[in-house]
Amino acid sequence: MALDRDHVLRSAAALLTRKSTATMDEVAKAAGISRATLHRHFAGRDALVRALEALGIAECEAALDTARVDEGPAGEAVHRLVRAIEPAAGLLAFLYTENQLFEGEQQNQGWARMDERLTALFRRGQETGEFRIDLTPAWLTEALYGLLASGAWAVSEGRVAANDFTYMIVELLLGGARRTTP
Fold first, then answer.
1. Whether the Cβ atoms of residue 62 and residue 74 lie closer than 8 Å to each other
2. Over the stretch 156-179, which tens digit does the pLDDT of each residue have?
3. Rounded to whole angstroms, how far apart are CA atoms 138 and 122?
4. Among 92, 103, 139, 142, which is least packed, fewest CB within 10 Å?
């Protein structure tokens, strides 16, 4: 029987989202395969994390496309994006804590592509007068990543209802980012 790589990655993502320190043995058990089979496909934790990174980037870029972030008012685009990215938020939360993904020559260019698209969204919101200009688009992008990760952790820990994920993130981010007129 052929290994279902997508199943293994999604099982690993689900486990590592809840328990970032899980061992390769625990990942194999969660995926329903032996440790030897896991190691044949992923030489070690770093290889597994890199594969999860590729999956996470693909899912986040798909969410950016689904949300049509270049269309309509920027605030509405942010709302659509948070709703679209919610299924991948747990994986994003795990990846957000994996510092080695953001260091050195091995950095996946997918992060830069996502940053560029998000920064453009926030810049557009500033140019149209929707968002404050004293908060840089880069900062708003980082704030969004942080809120997505925090929201995913809060939902997975049962501290926040899953149905409130999008509302809470959008309200907090845009509540601080919206430009107010005196």
1. no
2. 889 999 999 999 999 999 988 787
3. 8
4. 103
Nearest to 39 by CA among 24, 17, 50: 24
User: Tokens 């440790």, residue?
Assistant: 35
Query: pLDDT tens-digit profile of 114-145?
Result: 999 999 999 999 999 999 999 999 999 999 99
Question: Cα torsion at 147, 149, 153, 155 (round to 10°)?
Answer: 60
Phi-psi group of 158: left, alpha or beta (phi > 0 → left; psi -120 to 50 → alpha; rest → beta): left
Which element (helix H / strand E) includes 123? helix 109-127
| Sign of the alpha-carbon torsion through 38, 39, 41, 42 | positive
154 close to 55: Cβ distance less than 8 angstroms: no
By the 8 A CB rule, do 149 and 46 touch?
no
Residue with tokens 């659509």: 80
Burial class for 103, CB neighbours closer than 10 Å (0-12, 13-18, 19+): exposed
Ramachandran region, residue 180 (left: φ > 0; alpha: ψ -120 to 50; beta: rest)? beta
* Residue carrying the six token digits 């925090």: 150
Between 97 and 25, residue with greater pLDDT? 25
First to last CA, the chain: 66
Q: Which two tokens stand for residue 26?
A: 């625990």
